[in-house]
Design brief:
The complex is a heterodimer of chains A (about 170) and B (about 160). Chain A is α+β, with helices and mostly antiparallel strands and about 170 residues long. Helix content of chain A is about 55%, strand content about 15%. In chain A, the strands form three sheets. A three-stranded antiparallel beta sheet of chain A has the order 1-3-2. A two-stranded antiparallel sheet of chain A has the order 4-5. In chain A, strands 6-7 form a two-stranded antiparallel sheet. In chain A, helix 1 runs antiparallel to helix 2 and helix 3 packs across helix 4. Chain B is α+β, with helices and mostly antiparallel strands and about 160 residues long. Chain B has one domain. The longest helix of chain B has about 35 residues. The chains are: A alpha+beta (about 170), B alpha+beta (about 160).
Chain lengths: ~170, ~160
């Protein structure tokens, strides 16, 4: 799992409840606003309805956005889980999600920053990739320089992930 | 990996944001129904609440950036990274990025992160130590001299072999 299950699920459930509760409320406020405007009963009533409608719509839009974000994070996690070598091109994920690369990056950075996504980041050696890691707090427990047993070429492997020699393509045991 | 305790404190205070939101909404609702509340005190309390909420949002934003930087630096196996690489990764300009990293440092959210600008004005982010932790190590395979930083995985610049015996 590359996402915080409890955090994302609770957010999704909470925001869904808010949306379900606010939908009829927004509709009632909209009808009230129409009624107030049609009966020319302007003044305090109009102000109150407008104020409530404003606050409700903000919470409503925010909740919808949160649910959408949570859904995207779950989809990103699904894609990361399916990957074997732990290096995923950003362009591929963006394409699969049907969004622009720039937009995807913004969401990804946001999710990593909020600790919704974990054990993944942008690959420092090639920023067009997302790199997965084993979550260790020491670099030497994440990476190791080793030689391929088949061709003898030097490789830097990530521990805990399936790695292949970058020259001959044979699997390297971590 | 590069986060301090400050980050946890910032995230903890993130919970307060929900109560601030609730307080603002409650105040707002009361204010709509009873005009008697419309005095200086009411508006002042509202102003304080909104200010606190803005500060809380700002702190959360800084913490979010610090977490992203920490995760990003956590995968720099050589112990240093050029700022322009980070700028390409995020899609932000270098100056802006530098400000953000310095802001995180100012808030004591990032540790062991040092910004070094060399004579050709290339900015490098060095992890662990600015320069003291660099040392020269001979490659056990080809014998070439390499600059390495303790605690990081560095390969020989010439034969790309492991420098660990």
């Amino acid at each position: 799992m590359y996402y915080e299950v409890a955090k994302i699920r609770s957010k999704k459930i909470l925001c869904s409840i808010i949306i379900a509760l606010l939908t009829p409320f927004v509709a009632i406020l909209g009808i009230l606003l129409l009624y107030v405007l049609l009966t020319h009963n302007e003044g305090e009533a109009l102000n109150a309805v407008l104020a409530f409608l404003f606050v409700t719509v903000i919470i409503y839009i925010r909740s919808i956005r949160q649910v959408k974000r949570a859904h995207i994070v779950q989809r990103i996690n699904h894609m990361l889980e399916q990957d074997e070598d732990g290096l995923i091109p950003i362009a591929d994920i963006a394409q699969q999600l049907g969004m622009e690369q720039r937009h995807f990056l913004r969401i990804f950075i946001d999710a990593v920053g909020k600790a919704q996504l974990r054990r993944c980041s942008i690959y420092p050696e090639d920023p067009t990739y997302i790199i997965l890691d084993n979550g260790s707090l020491k670099i030497k427990e994440r990476f190791r320089a080793t030689h391929c047993k088949v061709c003898g070429a030097a490789n830097v492997i990530r521990l805990g992930l399936d790695e292949h020699c970058k020259y001959c393509g044979s699997k390297i045991e971590s | 990996m590069y986060l301090t305790w400050g980050y946890k404190i910032y995230r903890f205070f993130g919970i307060i944001g929900i109560y601030l939101w609730a307080a603002i909404l409650l105040f707002f609702s009361f204010g709509i129904f009873s005009k008697e509340l419309w005095h200086f005190d009411y508006f002042f309390a509202m102003f304080i609440l909104i200010s606190m909420w803005s500060v809380h949002l700002y702190l959360l934003w800084v913490a979010k950036k610090a977490k992203f930087f920490s995760d990003f630096f956590g995968n720099c196996r050589e112990g240093f990274i050029q700022l322009r690489v980070l700028s390409t990764a995020i899609g932000a300009c270098e100056e802006e990025l530098l400000k953000e990293i310095k802001r995180c440092q100012k808030h004591h959210l990032l540790k062991k992160v040092h910004i070094v600008t060399d004579h050709v004005k290339y900015t490098t982010i060095r992890l662990n130590g600015p320069i003291d932790s660099y040392r020269i190590k001979r490659c056990p395979k080809c014998g070439a001299k390499n600059h390495v930083i303790d605690g990081f995985v560095t390969t020989c610049e010439y034969c790309h072999g492991s420098l660990d015996k």
